[in-house]
Amino acid sequence: PQTELAYRLGWARTALKATGFLTNSSRGIWSLSNTATALLNDPSLTIEQRGERVNGLTAKYRVGLRAVRRGHDAEETVGLIDEPNDDGLETPSREADWKQQLLENLLGMQPDAFERLASRLLREAGIDNVVTGKTGDGGIDGRGFFRVGLVGFPVVFQCKRYQGSVGSSTVRDFRGAMSGRTDKGLIVTTGTFTAEAKKEAGREGVPPIDLIDGDALCDELKKYGLGVQTQQVETVTVIGSFFSDI
Fold first, then answer.
1. How many CB atoms lie within 10 A of CB 4?
2. What is the rounded distance in angstroms from the CA atom of residue 173 to the CA atom of residue 91?
3. Are 165 and 189 in contact (CB under 8 A)?
4. Each residue's pLDDT tens digit in the chain (246 positions)?
5. What count of other Cβ atoms lies within 10 Å of the Cβ of residue 57?
6. Cα separation of 169 and 197, whole Å?
7. How many CB atoms lie within 10 A of CB 142?
8. Cβ pair 200, 173 in contact under 8 A
9. What is the dihedral of CA 224, 135, 146, 198, to 10 degrees?
């Protein structure tokens, strides 16, 4: 029974990913897609109608699998699974170019969407139970719990979707919001931090605050494959001396 259940759950997860309801990263972190979120939050649909919508898409996915297994040509299965025509990938570019392009996309996000992205990034980095904060939470946008072996501690974070620089006053205010909650905080921004902000973040005698600027944020998103895909090109070299020495 347990094997059968594991199989069914695995199939359901695969089907929901193929139909666009689930996404996962290279680390195996699963999240609801925008399509799934929109469906769950659609006030015009009842719970039964939402279920029927999901069942219809997974059934279509099952039909597609059966057609492929029967050896049908790929052209015969086109349209059986609803997939976007565009894979969403951008043309590869140099480092400065892709980071600039990525930052433009980040700056175009809504504030709450950027907070959700930061939460996703923290989950990828190994922080558990990450949730976004509530209005009036003293400048704290989210919180989670980081465990190292048997020791764990809460973490709070703040998101600044800036094009300019974050100053020392922001760091001080955030540290004040941390008081009584935790001694570990993180500020994530698409911009940069001033020299005074960096000095304030590491000031002795008070809880330190980790800073992630736009450049580091791009590197982290690339590291965990969040909105960035890397391609490795194989280089083949023929060694002429090998053949002449035989």
1. 8
2. 41
3. no
4. 445 544 455 555 555 665 666 666 555 555 666 666 776 777 887 877 777 777 776 676 666 655 545 554 433 333 223 334 444 444 444 556 888 899 999 999 888 889 889 999 999 888 888 887 664 566 788 888 888 777 888 899 999 998 889 999 999 999 999 888 888 999 999 999 999 999 999 999 999 999 999 999 999 999 988 888 887 777 788 888 777 777
5. 20
6. 7
7. 22
8. no
9. 80
- 209: its two tokens: 């605050």
Walk across the sheet containing 127-132 and list its strands.
127-132, 142-148, 151-160, 185-189, 209-212
pTM reported for the whole predicted model: 0.60
Phi, psi of 203 (to 5 degrees): -60, 135
According to DSSP, the residues that pair with 188 across neighbouring strands are 159, 212
* Upper half-sphere CA count for residue 67 (Cβ side, 13 Å): 16
**How many Cβ atoms from other residues are within 10 Å of residue 35's Cβ?**
15
Structure tokens given for 198? 């960096």
